Amino acid sequence: MSIKEEILQAIKTLVKKEIQKQSQSRDVVIVVTGIKGDKITIDGAEYWLKDGIGLNLAVGTQVWVRIVGNEKYIASRR
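Above: the chain's sequence. Below: its structure in token form.
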């Protein structure tokens, strides 16, 4: 295998691994500990999480948050 082919193979492997990481999703349960405008406080950190389903969140509400790559959004109440 030439150096050019080895470099291309290495790049393909790196890209494939990164794509797999970004496309993985997971759901986690969180408890809303604070609300300030469009931001929700979770464990002391503020996040902007889209509530596209109109849950009318309040402090203490348990919700499922879907995490896809670096994106997070509220999926439903728990």
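The mean pLDDT is 78.
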